[in-house]
Amino acid sequence: MTINIRPVDRSRPEPLWHQAEQTLRSLIANGTWPDGTQLPNEGRLCGLLGVSRITIRHALRNLEEAGLLRREHGRGTFVRTSTVTAGIRGLTSFTQEMAERGLVVGSRVLELAEFPASPDVASALEIAEGEPVIKIRRLRAGNNQPMGIQTAFLPTARVPGFLDIGEPILSLYETLKTRFGISPRVAREIYRVGTVSAEDAPLLEVEPGSPAFIVQRITSDARGPFEYTVSTMRGDRYEIRSRLQL
């Protein structure tokens, strides 16, 4: 593989590992290194960038923790730009998560309608069973790769006229903030291991029964819960990492 990489500039104030990380990140972002590309070994990267092994390892570790690379023991380091890494983080939307990882977010509305709240939805939103709720079912993607299917429920009373917006829903949180003055303050999430249903499998481009993360989120503002979302995320494109210490 022919690679044109400019060595780091030692006259610049930024740390060498940061310059190396940004150079590698740009190669991934601009498609020079697409999904699945195996990176040159550490020795060659050191020579191309003009840095030490300690410096290149720092840069690679940061990119791996950001979900852009994966290391396979005995094989090497590979690009994995279509992976979302979940862990300890702030309260963000899917759109924000994609942007933070340098991925182009995609969203397709599969269903947008009003329904009476089921017992589970009513309990999550702290409303009476049967009260009207808006259901938004969307296929979410990163860099044109299907990542998951999210189904959100909103109390109709909190979002009057939501069905009349008449525009694609990319960032739900941004729509709620700009149109209805609703800003999330806290959310509770539950992750469990599950499988992709026969209905969702064609949309996610996997076989029915493929492994998935099932994520439930209840999001609240000062007035209480305003969103209940159930997501099915592809197991090969979504992972959870935690940093533990004493």
Automatic annotation (TrEMBL):
<dbReference type="InterPro" id="IPR000524">
    <property type="entry name" value="Tscrpt_reg_HTH_GntR"/>
</dbReference>
<dbReference type="GO" id="GO:0003700">
    <property type="term" value="F:DNA-binding transcription factor activity"/>
</dbReference>
<dbReference type="GO" id="GO:0045892">
    <property type="term" value="P:negative regulation of DNA-templated transcription"/>
</dbReference>
<feature type="domain" description="HTH gntR-type">
    <location>
        <begin position="14"/>
        <end position="82"/>
    </location>
</feature>
<dbReference type="GO" id="GO:0003677">
    <property type="term" value="F:DNA binding"/>
</dbReference>
<dbReference type="InterPro" id="IPR011663">
    <property type="entry name" value="UTRA"/>
</dbReference>
<keyword id="KW-0805">Transcription regulation</keyword>
<dbReference type="InterPro" id="IPR036388">
    <property type="entry name" value="WH-like_DNA-bd_sf"/>
</dbReference>
<keyword id="KW-0238">DNA-binding</keyword>
<dbReference type="InterPro" id="IPR036390">
    <property type="entry name" value="WH_DNA-bd_sf"/>
</dbReference>
<dbReference type="Pfam" id="PF07702">
    <property type="entry name" value="UTRA"/>
</dbReference>
<dbReference type="Pfam" id="PF00392">
    <property type="entry name" value="GntR"/>
</dbReference>
<dbReference type="InterPro" id="IPR028978">
    <property type="entry name" value="Chorismate_lyase_/UTRA_dom_sf"/>
</dbReference>
<protein>
    <submittedName>
        <fullName>GntR family transcriptional regulator</fullName>
    </submittedName>
</protein>
<dbReference type="InterPro" id="IPR050679">
    <property type="entry name" value="Bact_HTH_transcr_reg"/>
</dbReference>
<keyword id="KW-0804">Transcription</keyword>
